[in-house]
Amino acid sequence: MSLPVRIVSVGTHTPAVRVTSEALDELYGRPPGSTSARSGVLERRWIAPDETTVSMTGGALAQALDRGGLTIDDLDALIVTGIVPEQPLPTTAILVAAQLGVADGALEAFDVNASCLGFLVGLQQAAFGIAAGRWKRVAVAATDIASKGLNHSDLETSALFGDGAAAAVVETASMVETASLVEPVETPEPRSSDPGFDTLNRGSEILALRLRSYPSAANLCRILAGGTRWNTFTPPPERAEYMFAMDGLGMMKLVTREFPGFLDDVLDEAGVTRDQLDVIVPHQASSLGLRFLRERLGMRPDTVVDILAERGNQVSASLPTALASAVESGRLRRGQLCLLLGTGAGLLFGAAVLRF
Which terminus of the chain, N or C, has fewer Cβ atoms within 10 Å? Predict the structure, then answer.
């Protein structure tokens, strides 16, 4: 059963500091070219001293609202997703609402933590709330500052990550359409290879959205300290426990075994085939993950949005930043079929098929 919701607009925040892989090689004494060769990332953005989780989120949200011809007062709810909040209490969503001058009692605001798939989980919450009639318009913002938790003695993880934030405004598809995401575009004709697959007579909708967890992989991607177990009052045995750690090979083995079947289930639920997908927006997990998507999952390479080289893995902000890139570049247009997909720590799989 599809959900009649529409992504109105998207926005991003690009952190101020540009960090090249060559600079990391020099800074950490690595052989020239080793950082980019290992990660596939040529450069990434890290925050400047005056940038914060809240300021990044607010910037991305403000851009999304402006592009949709909206203000913060037009929202019924604000959902913010990320792994590490600016502070434990109150939520980042409340802090962003305060920064943007939201009036008391004007909207619901809360956080979601679902690792790299936070945006998909937030989108699901927004779609369910809209479909149930609770909200008419919701903003979902994803934000993470990975640069503050990297262990630079571990090339596999420290070479890969960047900071960033992205936001999307979602509304019920029955509302009068507002401004397009960037510039008005014509609805594309149906693909000639898909007889009878009429994109012109269907509005925006989420055709399928599914999440699936694999708890046996809980220790493959982790930050052990910083919560209630190990903290400043009960320090961990090693400072490195505050930093991100990952068994990339272990995760890839599970993904290789389980993800193809998961994706088949999502596409079957949506009633579409791989060839009918116009644009594929993946979480920018790694160069290996993107290659797996193209070569093992049967996706047409020209449909895959790949911004890893210039952005790195931005954790929860990665997928919506790639979505914004597809929209801003004109690759994703109204009426087209789009697949959002990725994996997150846990291990968590997620995918959504939507008619944009």
Answer: N
Three-state SS letters, 109-127: EEEECECECHHHHHHHHHH
Cβ–Cβ < 8 Å for 7, 356: yes
What phi, psi does 341 have (nearest 5°)? Answer: -160, 160
Do the domains at 5-172 and 205-215+246-355 have one common CATH topology?
yes
**Token digits for 258?**
């389980």
**Distance, first Cα to last Cα, the chain:** 17
Specify the DSSP element, H or E, that contains 11. strand 5-13
pLDDT score for 174: 66
CA angle 21, 247, 345 (to 5 degrees): 95
Each residue's pLDDT tens digit, 299-348: 999 999 999 999 999 999 999 999 999 999 999 999 999 999 999 998 99
Give the separation between CA 270 and CA 332, rounded to whole angstroms. Answer: 18
**Torsion-angle region of 278 (φ positive above 0: left; ψ -120 to 50: alpha; else: beta):** alpha
Q: Domain 205-215+246-355 falls in which CATH fold?
A: Peroxisomal Thiolase; Chain A, domain 1 (3.40.47)
Across the chain, what does the average pLDDT equal?
A: 91
Residue 113, judged by CB atoms within 10 A of its CB (0-12, 13-18, 19+), counts as middle
Residue 266 and residue 261: Cα distance in Å, rounded?
9
Question: What's the gap between Cα 188 and its chain centre?
Answer: 25
CATH of span 5-172: 3.40.47.10
- Segment 123-127 mean pLDDT: 97
Per domain, the residue ranges of the chain are 5-172, 205-215+246-355
The span from the CA of 240 to the CA of 202, in Å, is 52
Q: Please say whether the beta carbons of 78 and 97 come within 8 A.
A: yes
